[in-house]
Amino acid sequence: MRSLFELAGYEYKKMFLRKGTIIALALGLLITCFVQIMFLLPLFTADETPWQNMAYAREHSRSISGTPIDGDLISRAWVYSETIDGSRYDNVRWITQSIISMSEAQSVAEANTFYELHHSLVQSSTNWLLDINRISERGAEWIMTQHESIDTPWVYEYFGGYYNFFTRLSIVVVVLFFALAVSIAPVFATEHSTGVAQIMLASKFGKSKLIWAKLLTAATFSAGITFVFLLCSYGINMAVFGADGGAAAFQLFWPPSPYNFNMAQVSVIYILNAASRAIFFGAAVLLLSAKLKSSFSTIIFASVWVFLASALVVALPIRWLFDLYRLIVEMLPVMVIPAMSTFSIAPYEIFGFMFPPFVFEAVFSLVVGAAMLIFAGRVFKRYQVG
Amino acid sequence: MELVIDRLTKQYKNKIAVDRVSLSLKQGIYGLLGANGAGKTTLMRMMCGLLTPTGGEVKFNGIDVKQEDYRDALGYMPQHFGYYPDFTAMGFLCYMASLKGLTKHRAKEKSAELLELVNLTDVAKKKIKTFSGGMKQRLGIAQSLLNNPKILILDEPTAGLDPKERIKFRNLLSQLGKNRIVLLSTHIVSDIEDIADVVLIMKDGQIIENGKVDEIVSDRKSLEKLYMHHFGEEEENA
Question: Whole-prediction pTM value?
């Protein structure tokens, strides 16, 4: 076991001795940090004093933190909307407005029936999924059961840090996966391009522990770098925009969500989910590296996958076929966005069992990722020098 | 100690690179001579488990070439020695030692010892990318000895070495051949003439001569003349 970890240590050493890895990670982290705060820089916004404006809005918003979102608060939010003091209710108006418009209600007059409107919003979304055969009757029941478990009334909290964290994730993840592609592509390919593969495969552990060490390195590196990037993003947002709002219902950010999670829980689940998907992606890159024997070709293929447009929506008549298609599309790196896939409303239905996307896609990533890692190892082991 | 090669064959689409080669190698130095394309490298790669043979088998003391125990007894230096440019000589040897199952402490000791042996101690902490061809070749020889192998397979190890280094290398091989099987391929006759216990001459994938220098030279007077007899035309064309 000790030799396995020692060999994995050497794999890390090789990885960090490559300029490409250092540049990709440094650049990735720089972009990650930059996108979190770019709209606080006057260069990227029409505001002349964006930082002061953010701080002002935050203080106003914080002044009503801890207030239950009920008819009274919603009414106040709309009554004071035209006044200077009304800015403290901006977020409440945004939340209620999005639910009202999504549920196709006509006006804020229905504020007292806010949670009924929210219920009808989830119900209509569920019915739509049922109509297009995306879910079964049991799936629809499952969604509504989840929805009914949500604690109400929601308590308003300022959640600017979490809002920014969630909305910047798509960029962070794409940058992260690109950096992973550059870093992992040489793991097997370099052994071929340098010619070291010949000596390795003729050595005692060349066809056993070395391969496990490489697989372990790819998996831990993928997960580890994901934690670094996402925790960096999380930390900056909490430090700059404020760490409050962790206990607020996730529905304040994504109203149709049927899951009873708060913002902090969603962040943890999301980071773990992203790490499992990164392992899946890292395994795919490693497999390409072993197959193509070229870092450059591997990076090109992996990059195409990273940036592949995910907007291809097809209407497949058979539910399991659509689920398969959805799984493939949602495993695209650009789809690692909470609202879009990780916490999407529709569950995966497997043999009558319901799995929320953040569970199923994480398990799928780990299982298929492990299989791909093992397959990548076999490809290297069976390499014929000649 | 016996390395048995039994009807070893490698066939590519329309070409037989190694054709039913059978050998029994015991302790000592074996010089494998042959022109380019004779099948020396293919034979050696199969003996190292780097190429799967089309037919036949390789066993060392009954252990199959595919097994880890076989590789544990093997030291190999390929024709084109691969390395990591940004590793130091010491770092590279320590890594190779880990791959060969040496503990960290033993790896450091053995690496230092071998760097001394191949006269690279002064540059132990320099990056390999700064080395000359001869220095890289010596490092390649050092890595093949890390696990004190019972079978040492060296594919054209003297390429890139200057005359002084060649003499030193021959002396080293003489020492190494006393307690292991050393198989050394070359197309330079003088590399093996004085040190090989047994000379194997390979042509068109087959071993056409196999014996002590005196036995196979017989009326040809020298190994060089015998070599020219077999490959003279090919060498001139090359």
Answer: 0.87
